[in-house]
Known about the structure:
By secondary structure, the protein is of the alpha/beta class.
Amino acid sequence: MTFVAPPPAPAPDQASPGQTLSTDEVLRIRNDFPVLHQLVNGHPLAYLDSGATSQNPISVMEAEQEYYEQRNAAVHRGAHTLAFAATEVFEAARATVAAFVGADENEIVWTSNATEGVNLVSYSFSNASLGLGGPAAARFRLSAGDEIVVTEMEHHSNLIPWQQLALRTGSTLRFIPVLPDGTLDLAAAAEILNPRTRLLAVTHASNVVGTINPIEDLVAMAHAVDALVFLDACQSAPHLALDLAALDVDFAVFSGHKMLGPTGIGVLYGKAELLAAMPPFLTGGSMITTVDMQGAEFLAPPQRFEAGTQRISQAIALASAVDYLSHTGMGRIRTREAELGRRLVEGVTAIPGVRLLGPGLGVERIGLAAVDVAGVHAHDVGQFLDEAGIAVRVGHHCAQPLHKKLGVTASTRASTYLYTTDDEVDRFLAVLAEVGPFFGVSR
């Protein structure tokens, strides 16, 4: 690969929600992302895999580097000046991320990734089901006859932990079906959610079909039967203005590496009163008040759920990523990606032999499109695109049940972000149209 250094450029300007990012602004934004300015297989890189991992702006990389150069110390432990400075910037990062998603600081728990956050809640429910946590944890206890509801479009990370919780507690796992157009069957949801339902786990936006689910409606259905709601916000936090308090979900998770941040950092949100009642999952240092040889008392949340050495530099870098997104304007990002999503849908549906998975025109989606090329395996499609310098995701995208429901084993997914240009989408569509003829597939 050949790297071409970009010229420096000013940060993007703020604008009111609903406006979009202009072509010039997108080009200025791209100057903040050095990785985008390289050749792959002799072609300019078109990075269309942000749904898996987004790229990092220079400011995010510098924030993490500055921490290690100037403030590296254990947080919440030392009494010296450097430890105090580290703790201050670490907790400031928590406040920044909390404000970004409409939460209070004590409702934000740092995790290594979103998957850990799902498992944290799952195992806390398990511990409560064993009697841990006392009377306050009673609402988290599950047993035979209780039901956990998920959907057919869940990422494995928001499915398997609940499958395992059902196995550990003897409860029943049920699921809301997906309709042929890639949307949830809300009529079925209304029947499935019932007084035995203890938890509904649902994705805000599908990482395969791009559907933005009607979370307000689902929350109302679940709360009407006194069930808790767990939201997978991994594909919404990077792309939509997110207000978790307004959505009234009880728990939510998202990952830093999908929203311009580093790997190794995720966020669990929980309503303050629920986190205060939950028994911990991981135990050890940094999450206790007193310990003797027979037992321990635990700190209040969020520290109760943050055992061990913290993800300090990663949290600081995630806060920098949140600042970048906020400065750009989440409303503008959403509008821009909706435009890119329409461009993808229009282009894909015009190519003979290529099937778009999920909703077509007229239904808003996050800026991604997964496709099935008749007669060509997704891995071959991805390799063909990579030869042209176009990076996409291939496979089942950690959503095998959804692919099975849609009648395919794998798909090819192009996913955009605030740094994606119209030209990159058009290049993807042009090369995708060549796949069938290259492999000799009749149409």
